């Protein structure tokens, strides 16, 4: 299960990370969010998190840190969408990835401590 969730997370965040950096439509969303200066940073953090989750399959402590950070990032993303009064369907990807990475954090942490 850890492998499946790690791949889901890594593929999703690689896609979203590259999009934040390279896709004008996604970068324009950051203007709407009121944080255009964070689009590239957000993309880089997502790419680093994706790499951390994959490396976590071999180094679970790194995977736990990466998954926790990605989960927090997505919770903050949901908060931004709530502040903007976006419809629920626009919040679901971030909410779903927050849950996936929270579960992944638990799996990696279990590997670290036990």
The proportion of strand residues reads under 5%
Reported for the largest beta sheet, the result is:
none
User: What's the structural domain tally?
Assistant: 1
Question: What is the CA-CA span between the terminal residues?
Answer: 17 Å
> How many helical elements?
5
Uncertain regions: pLDDT < 50 for 5+ in a row?
Answer: none
- Tell me the radius of gyration: 14 Å
H/E series, N to C? HHHHH
Query: What is the number of E strands?
Result: 0
Structural class based on helices, strands and sheet pairing: mainly alpha
- What coarse outline follows from CA principal-axis ratios? globular
Topology record:
Layout: H1 2-22, H2 24-33, H3 39-55, H4 60-83, H5 88-113
Helix pairs in contact: 1-3, 1-5, 3-4, 4-5
Descriptive overview:
Helix 1 runs antiparallel to helix 3 and helix 4 packs antiparallel against helix 5. With 114 residues, the chain is mainly α. The chain has one domain. The two termini are 17 Å apart. The longest helix is centred in the last third of the chain and has 26 residues. The protein has 5 helices and no strands.
Key traits:
single chain; about 110 residues; mainly alpha; 5 helices; about 85% helix
Q: What's this, in brief?
A:
The protein is 86% helix and 0% strand. With 114 residues, the chain is mainly α.
């Amino acid at each position: 299960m850890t492998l499946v969730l790690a791949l889901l997370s890594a593929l999703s965040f690689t896609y979203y990370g590259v999009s934040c950096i390279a896709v004008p439509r996604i970068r324009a969303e950051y203007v709407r969010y009121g944080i255009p200066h964070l689009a590239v940073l957000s993309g880089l953090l997502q790419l680093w998190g994706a790499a951390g989750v994959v490396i976590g399959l071999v180094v679970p402590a790194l995977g736990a840190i990466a998954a926790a950070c990605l989960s927090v990032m997505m919770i903050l993303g949901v908060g931004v969408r709530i502040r903007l009064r976006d419809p629920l369907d626009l919040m679901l990807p971030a909410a779903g990835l927050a849950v996936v990475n929270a579960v992944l954090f638990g799996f990696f942490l279990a590997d670290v401590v036990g």
